[in-house]
């Protein structure tokens, strides 16, 4: 189990990078990472050229894992492991203070579920 925030950030970033094609990283720094779907689409009647999927940012005592599929579809949370849900603070931000293989697996599953949701909606 790691509690080093830089190491947690790097490990989570690797999980998210798997989705860079077809999505795009619009920010890729040592302490911040963002993943977007860049596509002309309409969401709730509004035209958009992109939609945020998720991101990471190193905060003072945790890594913020921002995951917009949770915000886009609140029922999606029922598919997540309860240990991951305990880290959800607010609507779409998980506070990751330590990372072990089990939590990494839960985040991997959540990314796949979120990706499939975006794909089903035609956002990717």
Report what the structure shows.
The chain has one domain. 34% of the residues lie in helices and 33% in strands. It has helices at 5-17, 68-72, 82-85, 101-120; strands at residues 24-28, 32-43, 46-58, 63-67, 88-89, 93-96. A 6-stranded antiparallel beta sheet has the order 1-2-3-4-6-5. The chain is globular and about 45 Å long.
Topology diagram in text:
Elements (H helix, E strand, L loop, with lengths): L4 H13 L6 E5 L3 E12 L2 E13 L4 E5 H5 L9 H4 L2 E2 L3 E4 L4 H20 L4
Antiparallel strand pairs: 1-2, 2-3, 3-4, 4-6, 5-6
Key structural traits:
about 120 residues, alpha+beta, six-stranded antiparallel sheet, about 35% helix, globular
Indicate the radius of gyration in whole angstroms: 14 Å
Q: Assess the beta-strand content as a share of residues.
A: 25-35%
- Please mark out the parts with pLDDT under 50 across 5 or more consecutive residues, or reply none: none
- Tally of separate helices: 4
Helix content: 25-40%
Nearest-integer average pLDDT: 93
End-to-end distance, in Å?
A: 33 Å
Principal-axis shape equals globular
Q: What's the quick description here?
A:
The protein is α+β, with helices and mostly antiparallel strands and 124 residues long.
